[in-house]
Amino acid sequence: MMRIVCNSPDLYVVDYPAIDAVEVIDKRVGRGALMRDATARRFRVELEAWAESGDPDALESFIEHYGALMTQKAIYH
Questions:
Q1: pLDDT tens digit string along 4-17?
Q2: How far apart are CA 63 and CA 77, in angstroms?
Q3: pTM given for the model
Q4: In the chain, at which residue ranges do the beta strands (DSSP E only) sit?
Q5: What angle do CA 74, 75, 77 make, to 5 degrees?
Q6: For the chain, N or C: smaller number of CB within 10 Å?
Q7: Domain region containing 65
């Protein structure tokens, strides 16, 4: 089972709770990653905090922590 968590103009996030994974695509750079286990759990917590902050400018500082993991080119169907 998958659940779309975020689909903003800048970010696309799909949660796969059954396998403890999160797929993240930074639409601004067209790159993404599949994060698992502890990394996925940390991402979920930080995503929730960013969403609750209501500060769209905070996206840059939030997502830059994961930039090194986002090496897969996003392909849109």
A1: 998 988 889 999 99
A2: 24
A3: 0.84
A4: 3-7, 11-16, 21-26, 31-36, 72-73
A5: 140
A6: C
A7: 3-73
